[in-house]
């Protein structure tokens, strides 16, 4: 018998219970399925209040726990997340390009020199003087 997405989410939520950062109770809206294969589901559970993220691997039937552990390591190490819509078809989510080391360095420089005035920053970027 194949488990439904709702059943898998309920099991994950029952085991996780609350956010470890802010202690908010998780709901079904906090769970996003990243990858789904017959014996392994990869999910991200993100608290909608504090945005703490947990990567979850659900091993079903005769699935390989070692495969789940490897997939969790890849997710938590920042490797590109690929969403699998069906078992063979893969789609890279829009706007989810991997963060490169240069991106981190650029953000560091930006934040070091940024004065906190977002309105002024965006006015300067758009070329308006308002």
Work out the radius of gyration: 19 Å
State the order of secondary-structure elements, H for helix, E for strand.
Answer: HEEEHEEHH
Name the shape in a single word: elongated
Q: How many structural domains can be distinguished in the coordinates?
A: 2
Helical residues, percent: 25-40%
**Ranges with pLDDT <50 over ≥5 residues?**
80-92
Structural class: alpha+beta
- Mean of residue pLDDT values: 75
Give the strand tally.
5
How is the main sheet built? 3 strands, antiparallel
Strand order of the largest sheet: 1-2-3
- Work out the helix count: 4
Strand content: 15-25%
End-to-end separation: 62 Å
Describe this structure as you would to a colleague:
The chain has 130 residues and is α+β, with helices and mostly antiparallel strands. It folds into 2 domains: 5-94, no CATH class; 99-130, no CATH class. Helix content is 35%, strand content 19%. A 3-stranded antiparallel β-sheet has the order 1-2-3, sandwiched between helices. A two-stranded antiparallel sheet has the order 4-5. A hairpin with a 2-residue loop joins β1 and β2. The termini are far apart. The model is unreliable at 80-92 (pLDDT under 50).
Question: In a few lines, what is going on in this structure?
Answer:
This protein is of the alpha+beta class and 130 residues long. The chain is 35% helix and 19% strand.
